Amino acid sequence: MILDFGHFLPGSSTCTYSTSDLPGLGGCQGDQPEDFMVDEIPAYAPSGEGDHWFVKVRKRRLSTPQLTRALARATGCNERDIGVAGRKDSYAVTTQWVSLPCEPVVPEDDRIELLDVSRHGNKLRLGHSHGNRFTIRWTGVVPDAAERMPALLERTAAGLPNYFGPQRFGRDARGVQQSLRQLEASRARKNELRFAVSVIQSVLFNRWLGQRVEDGFLHEALLGDVLKKRETGGLFACESPEIDTPRVASGEVDPTGPIYGPKMWAPEGVAGEREAETRDQSPLTPENWAKMAKWGKGSRRLARVVPADVEWSIEDDVLTAQFSLPPGAYATTVMAAWS
């Protein structure tokens, strides 16, 4: 089974941006880990009391699973008892909180630095984060990048397509075909299957979102859309597009898209027809979908994202940009929309 990479890679002909008609900045990410820095925004501060140790960690050129394995080896605890709020990029300098069931020990690894330690009453869980703050150096921008930036920022303020970034799919998108092979294999490890299904769900979401952007509906409400309130996070179905479209345009609510699975809120009306079309046009067999249902329960994902607290400067041909994104959003998709 082969999926055409052009159907799901952000910035391709079928996964376009709402800034595609504007002159971009050009350039690319710098080639040093310090050119891509991520600071986790915790959902809460540790209480100072409890059976768990919350540790603020800075890592360099290291994945989050590699970090937890190193901490488990250093402390002698079970890696499964270590909690994180989310995974952070590997080829970067990132700061995040980690919870341990025992007193932390600094690993003998110069890529890991322990910045702070406190106690708390419960293990850190996935999603216990308000998002991430990014600092990115983008090199080789065009000479008039500073003149182009205001128009891009104005368009960005309305919201950008919330694509899964290319790192989700592995180098040269090889992770997609690997995930498909694992889905079709007679035997595979549970963790491998869960991750494979999540990758395929991401592919299908990007395909759905790319079509929505292409059709001009990113900032509109369609009949049956599952909309999310920005202030409270509540979900509801769109029954009157003429009422909800101005709410989408003003940023009060946002459309959501499909992370296919049996627990997903499936919309009705026009929105439901569009999501069913993306599903039916996929090359997945009924057997594939059955295995997908077992290992990926499904959910909704925001169709658009608005970077917060944007700061930027340009020196020579280097753009330094800072902005915050909610959990699950990719800084690489923001930078691609600007470039």
Task: Give the tags.
15 strands; Pseudouridine synthase; globular; 339 residues; 30% helix; 4-stranded antiparallel sheet; 2 domains; alpha+beta; 9-stranded mixed sheet
Kindly give the count of domains: 2
Mind telling me which CATH architecture of the largest domain this is? 2-Layer Sandwich
User: Distance between termini?
Assistant: 33 Å
- Please report the total strand number as a whole number: 15
CATH topology name of the largest domain, in short, is Pseudouridine synthase
- What sort of overall outline do the alpha carbons produce when their principal axes are compared? globular
Task: Give a verbal description of the structure.
By secondary structure, this protein is α+β, with helices and mostly antiparallel strands. It is globular and about 55 Å long. The model is unreliable at 1-6 (pLDDT under 50). The chain starts with 25 loop residues before the first strand and ends with a helix. Helix content is 30%, strand content 27%. It has eight helices and 15 strands. The protein has two domains: 5-21 and 159-305, TruD, insertion domain (Pseudouridine synthase), CATH 3.30.2340.10; 44-126, 2-Layer Sandwich (Pseudouridine synthase). Strands 1, 2, 3, 4, 5, 6, 7, 14 and 15 form a nine-stranded mixed β-sheet that branches. Strands 10-9-11-12 form a four-stranded antiparallel β-sheet. β14 (308-315) and β15 form a beta hairpin. The chain has helices at residues 64-75, 145-157, 174-184, 190-214, 241-250, 269-280, 286-295, 331-338; strands at 26-29, 36-42, 52-60, 83-84, 93-100, 112-120, 129-141, 160-161, 226-229, 235-237, 253-259, 299-302, 304-305, 308-315, 318-325. The longest helix is centred in the middle third of the chain and has 25 residues, at 190-214.
